[in-house]
Amino acid sequence: MILDKKHELERKLFRQFAETEFTKELQDRLDETGEFDWDMHRKMARYGFMGVRIPRELGGAGGDYLSYALLIEEFARVDAALSIYANTSNSLGGGPLMMAGTQAQKEKYLPQIASGEKIMVFALTEPGAGSDAGGTTTTAIADGDDFILNGRKTFVSGAPMADWCLVFAKTDLAAKGSRGISMFVVDLKLPGVSLGAPEKKMGINGYPTCDVVMEDVRVSKDCLVGPLHKGFSIAMRTLDGGRLGMAAQAVGIAQSCLDESVAYARERKQFGQPIGNFQGVSFMLAEMATEIEAARQLVYHAAELKDAGKDATMACSMAKFYAAETANRCAYKAVQIHGGYGYSKDYKVERLYRDARICSIYEGTSQIQEVVIAGQLLKK
Amino acid sequence: MKIIVTVKQVPDTTGKVSVKPDGTLDRASMETVTNPDDLNAVEAALQLKDQYGAKVITVTMGPMQAESMLRELYAMGVDECVLVSGREFGGSDTYATSQIIAAAIDTIGLDEDDIILAGRQAIDGDTAQVGPQIAEKLHLPQVSYAAEITKEDDGLLIKRMLEDGYMMIKVKTPCLITCVKELNEPRYMSVQGIEDCFDKEIRILSYEDLKDHPLIDKTTIGLQGSPTNIYKSFTPPQKSAGRMLKGNAQETAAELAKCLAEKHLI
């Protein structure tokens, strides 16, 4: 795909911002402490990154899926954790509201998310329900004009900083599998809500993740997003967009692996010459570059389909599957090219190797993406 | 209040610098950027706009390719972009350029509370002459090297940066201020700004539009009207690397004196 002038300029902005603002000091601090950086969150909000894909009339920048994908790719190229900062509001946090919220809900939540004043996160996974979201055991029982929520959500990215959380809960207890699930906005300051300790993660440090536990949490029926009992289909459609973002993140991480490897292959000398002169190394670079470009085109194509309002389920899963696996292959090769230095924290590829590992896991594992792709192929 | 900012598209010297066989810059093969000091001037204008409300207008002279720079300025928050462009203007030196830009600013019109901001100098020519010459031709007061701009009731208070200190200067509007990089940190474009910038109109001022202005005359613009011409430009030979002298003060001083004596410098 050849980007049009507008997207080309957006890419320039995202690249310029990331290369200037995501300093090595900040990257190291995030990786070491795992703590969220509010200053960077606010700075991103100032330039409209939190609301890239949120409509103009709701306080966003009014961009499209391609703008969003470029943002995540360029940010992840410098720092994968920081690419999540501007991700959630445009995908799993803001996405379900844009898709299924009432006008009043959109007006209540989206402007504050787009401006970065508030953070909305997404809670689908449970200790016993991951890829099998149908195994949800969190319940929301109607009680007059309210619902009472009980249950535990796990791996909720961003929950420690969040104000609101989109919670998927069983509202029709008799319904089987993924039926009878509804979506609610839960204010995390409500009585009965408690948070687990932040997870100690392998990578993506600096964007904390924790459990959200709900014990008799009372929310009004205004907090129901989308039709009652039909929340699961919204979750699935939201995940399409989320997968696109995470595919873009994988492309950014993979590109960073290549950038680091090319620079190192030029400068590192063995047997009296730069190691890039050896075919064993140069072929790895060629493989990485080719796979990254293929992954990037899958991502842009999926974004284009979504922007055109066409069915993009298979395209998003293909992009996520291929880009995530590419990121992992590239991270392996990048560390291999760096040799012993690649295993040292003094070199960026050590972190990239850890950051890449999540790509084929979150927002649907690679195997789940294959299930989605195959399901589309085999459906009648 | 209007704030008119003069800007220039220049070759990006952080990238590949390409020189033609005749010694002049091969601009066509180089990436371009907005002149860094001019971005400080734009930022100053946008800050004044944020604080007091103003219309920010950027004016540039150059070929139509300067449009890409102007789109970026729109994306930063500039309200109107004016491109002064015409074959007749080509080859202008600083005298002719300031003549043309002064005519363009006069055509846009200046009110009592208006301000003209310019970058201190462009990174390609490094003359720092165009801003001050525009002020002279428009008979406006000017303050160069502004490191701080404060708006007061009837004008501006400028902290003027000198090599070894500052001068505080009060100036009445309309006036022209040239800005140094210490003035501020230019903002990025915003996503919303980019979404809108390609739909905005760029006002073109051609020779036809300006030819009746008293400052415009075939003998004062373009190559013909330029009192200075570039005779030759060249890349200076690289200086050889310095040498560090090691040892205590007495040893190094003796070694240094020996080196200087060998070169017949002492």
* CATH homology-level superfamily of chain B: HUPs
Low-confidence stretches of chain B: none
Characterize the overall form of chain A. Answer: globular
- Helix tally of chain B equals 7
- Helix amount of chain B: 25-40%
Q: How large, in whole angstroms, is the Cα Rg of chain B? A: 22 Å
Strand ordering within the main sheet of chain B: 9-8-7-10-6-1-4-5-11
Q: Beta fraction of the residues of chain B?
A: 15-25%
Intertermini distance of chain B: 61 Å
| Helix share, percent of chain A | 40-55%
Query: What is the subunit organization of this protein?
Result: heterodimer
Q: Give the strand content of chain A.
A: 5-15%
Low-confidence stretches of chain A: none
Number of domains of chain B: 1
Mean pLDDT of chain A: 95
CATH architecture label name of chain B: 3-Layer(aba) Sandwich
CATH topology of chain B: Rossmann fold
Note down, in words, how this protein is organized.
The complex is a heterodimer of chains A (380) and B (266). Chain A has twelve helices and ten strands. In chain A, the strands form three sheets. Chain A has a four-stranded mixed beta sheet. Chain A has a four-stranded antiparallel beta sheet with strand order 2-3-7-6, with no helix packed on it. In chain A, strands 9-10 form a two-stranded antiparallel ribbon. In chain A, α1 runs parallel beside α4, α4 (65-78) crosses α8 and α8 (231-267) runs parallel beside α10. Chain A has 380 residues and is α+β, with helices and mostly antiparallel strands. The radius of gyration of chain A is 21 Å and the shape is globular. In chain A, a hairpin with a 2-residue loop joins β9 and β10. Chain A has helices spanning 5-21, 24-33, 38-46, 65-78, 80-85, 95-100, 103-114, 231-267, 279-307, 313-338, 348-357, 366-378, and strands at residues 120-123, 139-143, 146-157, 164-170, 181-187, 193-195, 209-220, 224-225, 269-270, 273-274. In chain A, 50% of the residues lie in helices and 15% in strands. Chain B is of the alpha/beta class and 266 residues long. Chain B has one domain (2-210): HUPs (Rossmann fold, 3-Layer(aba) Sandwich), CATH 3.40.50. Chain B is built from seven helices and eleven strands. In chain B, strands 9-8-7-10-6-1-4-5-11 form a nine-stranded mixed beta sheet, with helices on both faces. In chain B, strands 2-3 form a two-stranded antiparallel ribbon. In chain B, a hairpin with a 2-residue loop joins β8 and β9. Chain B is globular. The mean pLDDT of chain B is 92.
